[in-house]
Amino acid sequence: MALIILALCIVTLILLITAFKTNPFIAFLLVSVSAGLLLKMPPQAVIASINKGIGDTLGSVTIIIVLGAMLGKLVALSGAAESIANRLKNIFGPQYLTYAMALTGFVVGIPLYYNVGFILLAPIIFSVSYSSRLPVVYVGLPMLAALSVMHGFIPPHPSPMTLIGIFHASIIKTFIYGLIVAIPAIILAGPVFASRLKKVGTIYPATSVSDNSKPLPGVLNSLLSSLLPVIIIIIASVVTSLADKNSTSFQLAHFIGDPVVAMLITIIVSTYTLGIRTQRSLKEVMACYTDSVKDIAMILLIIGSAGTLKQIFVDSKLSDEITALVVRCSLEPLALAWLVTAVLRTCLGSSTVAGLTAAGVLFPATQHTAINPELMVLSIGAGSLFGSHVNDTGFWLYKEYFKLSVRETFFSWTMMESLVSFLGLTGVLILNQLV
Q: Where are the transmembrane segments (predicted)?
């Protein structure tokens, strides 16, 4: 009976979001309350689980997600992303232009969230398309593939960071494994796949992503400012692995290497390097930060509400039946996680909602089976990118910006997202045999 309730909850969630166009935050809360009551939890226990689910989920990731949004917005609006793109275009030359675009998306995609990144970086795609006289799809798809992969696989993006918290994974291992999986996926689904799309789309007039009245930051400044959180965390990780646990250097490195502290240091440094140093007032930089938080407010609410459903499943003891079901399933657990997430992504449209819903269902099984938590994060991340189509805002964003037909969008965007997803799963399964 409990598993029937589980299936009913998932179907109801899908219908509320897709058929009735209910806001995902409200949909998760409605389904969580209903699930708790149907599973015969006392009403007060249901409310307590919901509060705990939101608190536990948001408590570990909110600061990082907000600071990451601030950094990403500043990287784009300061012209740092444009500076990186211009330099890479000059280095790679016209023959390897798509690889330069993919590398740009890879670098700036570390701090930049996908939807925000698409809107802010689209003018760079148009500018390169215009200057090189090449169709916008051929030029832009490699950058968008990189942005999408980074959004789905790599912390500090909202979904990977939340999944890391849910599965108690290591942020360093997830980042390293994520890069190993991401690089071949980006190359094959980006430049290689784009080479077959040279006749799709047209060429558009050049536009600028940054404020033309301000000087662009230098490429070294742009790279270091964009990648500073990663640099700090990696250096701190090396120090903590070599230093004595009772030493001052270990304690300091452990403190600085915490993702929250690393992101905070980065924001302080970038406020100067990408803000004040590029002739922007402190007031302008703070306004940029304020706007960035508005962009992700609903993402935070959805993440928190998804945590309530997971907590209801755990507190109601439904987790035991879910675990038994997964253990009996003949499918490899990582492949099963990908499949569940891919189905939810196809039904729901949102990669973040699909990933967090799948995590809520699959989390109990990881408590009793020997599943690598970092690879579970990446498997769900890969599944959450599968088959973007008409129920996904990213599909329409791409179609309208690039002025494509629905058919052209399916054969370029949807195919690219599905390739990224399959390649991500393949990389995860190969890594599972090696680590």
A: 29-50, 57-76, 96-122, 134-154, 174-194, 223-243, 255-275, 296-314, 334-363, 375-398, 410-431
Task: Report the C-alpha gap between 19 and 7 in whole angstroms.
Answer: 17
Tokens of 243: 């230093």
Task: Kindly tell me the burial class for residue 435, based on how many C-beta atoms sit within 10 Å of its own C-beta (0-12, 13-18, 19 or more).
Answer: exposed
Please name the amino acid found at residue 268: I
Distance in angstroms (rounded) separating the CA atoms of residues 296 and 51: 21
The string of DSSP letters for 190-204 reads: IIIHHTT-TTSS---
pLDDT digits (tens, 9 = 90+) for 374-424: 999 999 999 999 988 877 878 888 888 788 888 899 999 999 999 999 999
Where do the domains of the chain lie? 2-60+302-434
Whether 187 has a pLDDT exceeding 70, the answer reads yes
Distance of CA 85 to the CA centre of its chain: 21
Could you give the angle at the alpha carbon of 80 between the alpha carbons of 77 and 84, nearest 5°? 140
pTM confidence score: 0.80
Predicted confidence band of residue 426 (pLDDT cuts 50, 70, 90):
very high
Instruction: Report the pLDDT value the prediction gives residue 145, as an integer from 0 to 100.
Output: 95
Rounded percentage of the chain residues whose pLDDT exceeds 70: 94
Say how far residue 303 (Cα) sits from the centre of its chain: 12
pLDDT at 268: 97
Element (H, E) at 309: helix 282-315
Q: Assign 3-state DSSP to the chain and report helix, strand, coil percentages, each to 5.
A: 80, 0, 20
Is 128 exposed, middle or buried (CB count within 10 Å of its CB: 0-12, 13-18, 19+)? Answer: buried
Q: Report the C-alpha gap between 345 and 339 in whole angstroms.
A: 10
Number of Cβ within a 10 Å radius of residue 105 = 32
From residue 139, alpha-carbon distances to 77, 306, 329 in Å are 21, 36, 43
Given this model, what pLDDT does residue 211 score? 55
pLDDT at 320 over 70: no
Separation of first and last alpha carbons in the chain: 38
Using CB atoms within 10 A of its CB, is residue 392 exposed (0-12), middle (13-18) or buried (19+)? buried
Write a three-state SS string for 55-119.
HHHHHCCHHHHHHHHHHHHHHHHCCHHHHHHHHHHHHHCHHHHHHHHHHHHHHHCCCCCHHHHHH
Q: How far apart are CA 317 and CA 354, in angstroms?
A: 22
Count CB atoms within 10 A of the CB of residue 333: 21
Return the pLDDT at 110.
82
